[in-house]
Design a protein that fits this description.
alpha/beta, Aspartate Aminotransferase, domain 2, 4-stranded mixed beta sheet, 17 strands, binds pyridoxal-5'-phosphate, 4-aminobutyrate aminotransferase, pyridoxal phosphate, transaminase activity, Aminotrans_3
C-alpha cells in the first residue's frame, strides 16, 4: 500500500516496518521467503514467530507474550473456545457446499440477517472480503448499467483484478482506470467542519467528472469507518448526504463492512448503522468467522436477480456448514459476552486515555474513532506535518513493550488501534502506558 509523505514522497506503508532481506538471517525467515517469494510481507524488521494465541494475547516461540492491537480478525478473542468447539463439531460431522440443504447454513444466515436492514434479504457467501467486493461491484454494474466507481483516495477493498483497480492504496505504480475516481476521505483537513457537505461535494464532483468522461456511475463504495484512509468516524450521520447524491445519479452505495462490522464501533453492529443509512449492498469478512475464512455480501433480491440473469455465481467453499458454524458462534459470543457494549465502553476509556497523551504531547496530533476502532495521528512537533518515521519508531517501541500495532492513512502516520472486542480495561490501560513509553 503506497502512501505519500507530507513532502510528497511515496512510501509503502507495510514496507515501512516490514522485514527486508538482509535485516536478519534467521533460519525461519529464510524458509518463509523461499516459500512465499516476492509476495511475502513480514511485519517488523525482526519478524516474530508466533506459536499460540488466546483472548487479546499472542505468544511467540521465544515465550514473549504480545497484546494484539493489530488484527481485527480474531474479533471475539483469539482461539475463542466456543468458535473452536463449533468448527470442530461441524467439521467432524459434515462439510459440503451450498448445493445441498444443511440447516446450520440457513440458521446462520437468518441470525446474520437479523442484524441487517430488511431490504437486504439475500446473502451470498464467499471466502474473502475481496470476493465479496468483487461480486458487489459486478452486481452494481448489472443493476445500474454503469461502470463507474467512486472510492476514497487511500481505500483498500481487496485483491481481485477488478477490486484492485478500485483500491488506490494497493497500487504501487500506475494510475486508476478511467472507470474509478478516488475522492478525499471525509476529514476535517479536506472538508473543514462540514464533513457531510464536503464529502457529498466530493462525490458530486466525481459524478460530474464521470459525466465528462461519458461513463455511467455504478456505485460509491466505502468502508464506513475509512480504515485505510486513517479512520474517520465522526460526526455520525455524515455519510447520508453522499449516499443521497450517489442515488440521485442512479448509482448505488456499497458499504464495505469488512473492517467496522460485527460490533467494533460500539454504537452499532455495522459501521453504516452509525450513519442512519440503508446501503444497497453490504460486504463483510475478516471478523465474521473469527479467523475461519468466510465473507459475504448482503443484497436486495432484485439486484441479485439482475446479476444472475446474465451470469451464474458459485463459490465452492463459500457458506459451507463449517463456515456457518463459525459465523453462528461469533454472533452468539458477541451477544452473550456483550462485546458490542464492551467495544463502546472500553473503547471510550481507551480513547480518553489516548487523548490524555495527546494533551501532553504535541506529536500526538489527533485521536479519533468509534468503539474499539481508533486512529492516532503522529506528527512532527515543530511543523505539525505527518511523521511516518516517528510512527515506525512508535510501532517498534510498542513491540518491545509487548504490544502489536500497525499504521494507516495517506501518510502512513496514523496508528490503527484495533484490538479484539473482548479487550479488558487493564489491557486498554496497558496499551496507553506502552504508547507513552514508546513516545518517550
Ligand atoms: C475494507 C476492506 N475491504 C476488503 C478487504 C479484503 O478482504 P480480504 O483480505 O478478506 O480479501 C480488506 C482487507 O484488508 C479491507 O480492509
Amino acid at each position: 500500500m503506497s502512501r505519500a509523505t507530507a513532502s510528497g514522497q511515496v512510501r509503502q506503508i507495510l514496507d515501512m516496518n516490514a522485514f527486508r532481506p538482509g535485516d536478519t538471517d534467521a533460519e525461519a525467515v529464510e524458509r518463509r521467503l523461499a516459500n512465499l517469494g516476492a509476495a511475502s510481507v513480514l511485519f517488523y524488521r525482526e519478524p516474530i514467530e508466533m506459536v499460540s494465541a488466546e483472548g487479546a494475547w499472542m505468544t511467540a516461540k521465544d515465550g514473549t507474550r504480545y497484546l494484539d492491537f493489530y488484527n481485527n480478525v480474531p474479533s471475539v478473542g483469539h482461539s475463542h473456545p466456543r468458535v473452536v468447539e463449533a468448527v470442530s463439531r461441524q467439521i467432524a460431522q459434515l462439510n459440503t457446499n451450498t448445493r445441498y440443504i444443511v440447516s446450520v447454513v440457513d440458521d446462520y444466515l437468518e441470525a446474520l440477517k437479523a442484524h441487517m436492514p430488511d431490504s437486504l434479504s439475500n446473502v451470498v457467501m464467499t471466502c474473502s472480503g475481496s470476493e465479496a467486493n468483487d461480486l458487489a461491484m459486478r452486481v452494481a454494474m448489472a443493476a445500474t448499467g454503469g461502470t463507474g466507481f467512486i472510492v476514497t483516495e487511500t481505500a483498500y477493498h481487496g485483491n481481485t483484478a477488478l477490486v484492485t483497480e478500485a483500491s488506490p492504496s494497493a497500487l504501487k505504480r500506475g494510475s486508476l482506470p478511467e472507470t474509478v475516481i478516488a475522492i478525499p476521505p471525509p476529514s476535517v483537513q479536506h472538508s473543514g467542519e462540514d464533513i457531510a457537505g464536503g464529502f457529498r461535494r466530493s462525490v458530486e464532483m466525481a459524478l460530474a467528472e464521470f459525466a465528462r468522461r461519458g461513463i455511467t456511475p455504478a456505485a460509491l463504495m466505502a468502508d464506513s469507518i475509512f480504515s485505510s484512509d486513517g479512520i474517520f468516524a465522526d460526526p455520525p450521520g455524515f455519510l447520508s448526504e453522499a449516499v443521497d447524491a450517489i442515488r440521485a445519479a442512479g448509482a448505488l452505495f456499497i458499504a464495505d463492512e469488512v473492517q467496522p462490522g460485527f460490533g467494533r464501533t460500539g454504537d452499532a453492529f455495522w459501521g453504516f448503522g452509525r450513519h442512519g443509512i440503508t446501503p444497497d449492498m453490504v460486504t463483510m469478512g475478516k471478523p465474521m468467522g473469527n479467523g475461519f475464512p468466510m465473507a459475504g455480501m448482503a443484497v436486495r433480491p432484485d439486484h441479485l436477480e439482475q446479476f444472475c440473469a446474465d451470469v451464474g455465481y458459485f463459490n465452492t467453499f463459500g457458506g459451507n456448514p463449517v463456515a456457518a458454524a463459525a459465523g453462528k458462534a461469533v454472533l452468539d459470543v458477541i451477544r452473550d459476552e456483550g462485546l458490542q457494549e464492551n467495544a463502546r465502553d472500553t473503547g471510550a476509556l481507551l480513547l480518553e486515555g489516548l487523548r490524555d497523551v495527546a494533551r501532553a504531547d504535541a506529536r500526538v496530533a489527533d485521536v479519533r474513532g468509534a468503539g474499539l476502532f481508533i486512529g492516532v495521528d503522529l506528527a512532527e512537533e515543530e511543523t505539525g506535518r505527518p511523521d511516518p518515521d516517528l510512527t515506525v519508531k512508535v510501532i517498534d517501541g510498542m513491540r518491545s513493550r509487548g504490544v502489536l500495532i500497525g499504521a494507516a492513512g495517506r501518510y502512513g502516520a496514523t496508528l490503527k488501534v484495533r484490538p479484539p472486542l473482548c479487550l479488558k480495561r487493564e489491557e486498554a490501560e496497558q496499551f496507553v502506558e506502552a504508547f507513552k513509553g514508546a513516545l518517550s
